[in-house]
Amino acid sequence: MRENRLREIWRQGGAAVNGWLHVPSSFSAEVMAHAGWDSLTVDMQHGPVDYGSLVPMLQAISTTETVPVVRIPWNDAGLVMQVLDAGSYAVICPMVNTREQAEAFVGACRYPPHGYRSYGPYRATLYGGPDYTDHADETVVTMAMIETREALENLEEILGVPGLDAVFVGPADLGQSLGYGPGMDRDEPVVVEAIERVLAAAREHGLAAGIFTGAPEYASRMVEKGFQFVTVSSDARLMASAAAGVVAAVRGG
Q1: What pTM did the predictor assign?
Q2: pLDDT given at position 253
């Protein structure tokens, strides 16, 4: 079976640089994949990507060594199984607030007896290899988002769920839940303390920790702190920023 490079990066103590895809286009995904990201996450929660767009985007990412990741819109077992069958090598689940929710998510990612994932890897065997089913459970990465006050209160119980591989801090929702409004690169002491608490707890449980950032400088700071999965901006934001910069440069010149 094809190796999951995220796991290898983490085993070596490194940090994966993850790109984010909002644009529902296989060509856009292919261009991003060839930029050299360690992994690319197709975002089905916020943005116009649906399942019909997802599959060709995963196919486009597969033209490179970049690891295909999907953030599902909600903790929906049926959709978890669909994105895995389509060839996603990691699933990010939003709004995981309790141990029970984490168990339901992880169970949907694992075949029996470790979970209740239904068999039907129609594209996963093309991407992962003919022995996909034999090794999927130890290859596919499960990542729960910690982004609410309730999740912080239940943090130890969530991180103790067998089969959970990583946690991912959603700084916008976390900040909003703590009363500071949305935003990415947080500097409010209360929010920073919460983020560092998630990181420390993940380390104690032997899990990788990820976070969404808006700028490379902040992402580098998070890597220095110990985060092993850093997302920097998104395809739509990067395109808008670069385009605006070009226009401003020409008009200014």
Answers
A1: 0.97
A2: 73
